[in-house]
Write a structure and sequence with these properties.
By secondary structure, this protein is α/β, with parallel strands linked by helices. The protein folds into 2 domains: 3-59 and 76-121 and 270-333, FAD/NAD(P)-binding domain (3-Layer(bba) Sandwich), CATH 3.50.50; 126-267, FAD/NAD(P)-binding domain (3-Layer(bba) Sandwich), CATH 3.50.50. The chain contains 9 helices and 24 strands. It is globular.
């Protein structure tokens, strides 16, 4: 009997069930690949829904303004990374009817599910700030968290001859919290190479109490801003943009002037989450921090940037989460207890300019500390240490992303549960007993 008729016969005897994944970005694509390998395909259909046919390597947006990457480096068709026997539905989502376990598409079609995985990510919402999208938008004001913004900023920088360049973060949380700092470090390097650094004042504006909020990282990395002569404006909660005077104004009337403003607009979850009544004020879905199950509905799970978890919104986090979520989906199918295994593990390189970089490795419990990674005492990467090999690790990640991470393949020497081996943990810093 052919595979087609065998499956059809099985379908008649046993009603197929459906796992539906909302979003075919990093997290959704990883889950589609991981589940297709582990879930019984005679019993479970897997469907993934996304309106955008292009997959973006978002960490690459950081490099586009400086001409290191082009749009061709960061764009590939989404279908290339979706398993052939996963149904890909190219459509926008109107809302989720969680009570009836259905996804309502914008074209009126309803897609039912037995298990729903929300992987809708985040989007930038510049119009959340009064005046942000005024006459200076894409004229003197740019972002690099979108491919269009990064490309437009690249064109703008080609004509830069000096002035006041301000890097600004509207509010937290944001995707890849270190990216704005990386931008000013790369800008310092780029300007120096072109003889424009002495003609440019670099300013970093943050709503937080400092550029680095974790004490140990602040002690190690804080000197970089002083060495690179980057002025920091802390506790700046933006109220509006004055397009006529080219300045941003905080709620408590602080003023920062700019000739060129590079901003990270407010980051919010997908609008469909708001319409579905599943999110918080930023449209992030309340999620169990260890099981990745929705706090509202037991047959809904959440992964990646769509969660409200107190960890970085980064691709590495989505990869680590997928290992736990993949097992918990299988446990849910078997009516077995869910594993409370996700520990908030995040891992990210920080470009510091001039061909060097740092590496951070941390979780819910332990902030970034010095050490070696991934092999204790050997590395080759240094934690909280500026090295050339950390820069090479950052640049190599693009290949790893397209060829391993999206496919849900294991990353050599790196597991979802953060290892404490090789880390120089200061005396008195809280560490779990299991470490």
């Amino acid at each position: 009997m052919s595979v087609f008729y065998e499956k059809s016969f099985w379908n008649l005897q046993n009603k197929m069930k459906d796992i539906v994944i909302l979003g075919a970005g990093t997290a959704g694509t990883i889950m589609a690949n991981r589940l297709r390998k582990s879930v019984d395909r005679r019993s479970w259909n897997i469907k993934i829904i996304d309106q955008n046919p292009v997959h973006y390597y978002q960490p690459g947006f950081l490099f586009m303004p400086f001409g290191i990457y082009s749009d061709r480096d960061v764009e590939k068709p989404k279908r290339r990374f979706i398993p052939r026997d996963v149904e890909y539905i190219e459509s926008s989502v109107d809302r989720v009817n969680a009570e009836k376990s259905r996804v309502m598409l914008s074209n009126g079609v309803e897609v039912s599910y037995d298990i729903l995985i929300i992987a809708t990510g985040v989007r930038t919402v510049p119009d959340q700030v009064e005046g942000m999208m005024g006459t200076d938008w894409r004229n003197r004001i740019f972002d690099f968290y979108t491919v269009d913004g990064a490309a437009a900023l690249q064109e703008k920088l080609k004509d830069w001859r000096g002035g006041r360049l301000v890097m600004h973060v509207s509010e937290m949380p944001i995707k890849c919290p270190v990216a704005p700092l990386e931008f000013v470090f790369l800008a310092d390097s780029w300007l120096s190479e072109r003889g424009l650094r002495e003609k440019t004042e670099l300013v970093y504006v943050t709503p937080l109490s400092g550029a680095f909020t974790k004490p140990i990282a602040a002690g190690v990395l804080g000197h970089l801003l002083e060495e690179k002569r980057i002025k920091v404006v802390n506790d700046f909660n933006i109220g509006n943009v004055d397009n006529e005077r080219h300045r941003i104004v905080s709620w408590d009337d602080k003023v920062v002037d700019y000739d060129l403003l590079v901003t990270v607009p407010t980051n919010m979850g997908d609008a469909a989450i708001e319409r579905s009544g599943l999110g918080d004020e930023f449209n992030f879905v309340p999620t169990d921090r260890h099981t990745l199950q929705s706090k509202q509905h037991e047959n809904i799970f959440v992964i990646g940037d769509a969660t409200d978890l107190p960890t970085s919104k980064a691709g590495s986090v989505a990869h680590f989460e997928s290992e736990v979520l993949g097992e918990n989906i299988l446990s849910y199918i078997k009516n077995a207890p869910l594993r409370e295994e996700f520990d908030g593990h995040a891992n990210c390189f920080i470009e510091s300019g001039h061909g060097k970089g740092f590496l951070l490795d941390f979780n819910y419990t332990l902030e970034p500390v010095p050490g070696s990674f991934p092999i204790p005492g050997i590395g080759p990467f240094g934690l909280l240490k500026e090295t050339r090999i950390n820069h090479f690790g950052k640049m190599a990640f693009k290949w790893i992303y397209w060829n391993m991470l999206l496919k849900g393949l294991p990353l050599p020497g790196i597991t979802q549960r953060m290892s404490y081996a090789g880390k120089k943990i200061p005396v008195g810093l809280a560490v779990p007993e299991s470490a």
